[in-house]
Amino acid sequence: MATIYVVGHKNPDTDATVAPIVAAWYLGLKDKENTYVPVIYNQPNKEAVFVLKYFGFNLPQEKQSFSPGDKIVIVDTTNPDELPDLTDVEVLAVFDHHKLGGLKTSKPLTAFIFPLGSTTAVLFKYFKANRLGCKNLDPKIAGLMAAGIISDTLNLQSPTTTDFDKQALKKLVEIAGIRDVDKLASEMFDAKSSLEGLTPLDILKYDAKEYTFGNKKTLVAVFETVKPEKLFDIYDKLQDAANKLKTNEGYDAVFFFVIDILKQTGFYMRVGEFEDKTIASGYNVEVPQDAMFIELTGVVSRKKQIVPVLEAYVK
Ligand SMILES: [Mn+2]
User: Which pLDDT belongs to residue 315?
Assistant: First the structure.
C-alpha cells in the first residue's frame, strides 16, 4: 500500500485545485492497492475556495516538497518550474491541457494530454476512454469537474473552448444536478474578482506563471475579474509593486494583464519600457506614455493569446 500524491501547479486556480481531487477519486477507484491523496502546492485563489465549499469539499493539504521515492500524479501542468522539486520522485501519470512544459521522467508514464478547455475536461475524456459510465460518476465530483471547465473557459466564452468542453459541461451539470449553470458561473467570477485582503503584490502573484523566453526570466500574470475598474483604480500601487517584484526576485520582465470576463477583453498594464515595447510590437498597438492600461481587444487567454506572443517578442 503506497501513498500516491496528486498535485497541480503553483498558485492554484480552480482547475488546479479540483483536478487533483477528481483524479485522485478516479485513480483510487481503479486501484484499491494504493491511496491517492490530492494536494495543492500553495493557497488556491478565492474562486477555488468558493467552489470547494459549494460542492462540500475540504481544502486539500498543501505540499511544497516531496521525499525521494515518492510517487506522484501531475495535473494541469508539465512545467517543473510550477511544481515542487521532482528530483528522485517517480511521476506515474500526467493529465493536462497545456503545451508541453519540459517535464522529464525517469520511467515510462501515463500521459493523457489534450488541447481541451480544462484539465477536468481532459479527465472526463479519460473517464470515457476507460468506460466509466456517467451513472458511476459521483455527482459531487461531477460538480467539481463542471467548475473546472467553467473557470478555465470563462463559462465557455474563452477561445480555448472546444466542442468537447461544451458537451462535457452539459453532461456534468446534469450529473451534478446544477440547476442554473450561469448563476454558478457568475458566483464563481464574483468570488474571483474580490480583492479583499490582497496587497498589490498578492494581486500580481495571484495567477502568475514564470517563463524563460530567450534568456529572459519573465513573469506573466493575469487577473480575471468582473470588476476591472477596481484594478484600474490602483494602477500606481500595482505598477510600483511590479517594479519592486522585478528588482527583488530578479525578473527581466513582468507582464500583468487584467482580463474582463464579462466584456471578454484584456488590458495590459504598463510596467516599464521593455514591457511596453514588447506589447507595442507583439500586438501592434500604440502605447502612449500617459496611458496606464492598454486594451488588447479580445485577449482573454494567457495560454492561447498571450504566451505565444510574448514567446515570440520577448528578446
Ligand atoms: Mn487548467
Answer: 85
Cα(289) to ligand 1 centroid in Å equals 35
Residue 286 CA to ligand 1 center (angstroms) comes to 32
Q: CB count, 10 Å around CB of 116?
A: 24
Q: Which domains does the chain have, with CATH numbers?
A: 3-190 (3.90.1640.10), 200-313 (3.10.310.20)
Ligand 1 centroid from CA 254, angstroms: 22
| Distance (Å) from CA 119 to ligand 1 centroid | 5
Render pLDDT for 92-115 as a digit per residue (tens, 0 to 9). 999 999 999 999 999 999 999 999
Q: What is the pLDDT, as a whole number, of residue 133? A: 80
Q: How far is the CA of 239 from the centre of ligand 1 (A)?
A: 27
Average confidence (pLDDT) over 150-168 = 97
C-alpha 306/C-alpha 302 separation (Å) is 5
Task: From residue 82, give the alpha-carbon distance in Å to each of 28, 205, 214, 289.
Answer: 25, 13, 19, 34
Output the CA 229–ligand 1 centroid distance in Å.
26
- Distance in Å, CA 16 to ligand 1 centroid: 6
Alpha-carbon distance 270 to 275, whole Å? Answer: 7
Ligand 1: centre distance to CA 76 (Å): 5
User: What is the pTM assigned to this prediction?
Assistant: 0.93
What value does the mean pLDDT of the chain take?
A: 97
Percent of the chain whose predicted confidence (pLDDT) is above 90 = 98
Between the CA of 96 and the centroid of ligand 1 the distance, in Å, is 7
Give the distance (Å) from ligand 1 centre to CA of residue 77.
8
- Measured in Å, residue 23 CA sits from the centre of ligand 1 at 13
H/E segment holding residue 218: strand 216-225
Which residues are CB-contacts of 146 (< 8 A; sequence separation ≥ 6)?
120, 169, 172, 173, 176, 178, 181, 184
Give the 3-state secondary structure of residue 163: helix
The answer to whether the CB of 8 falls within 8 A of the CB of 83 is: no
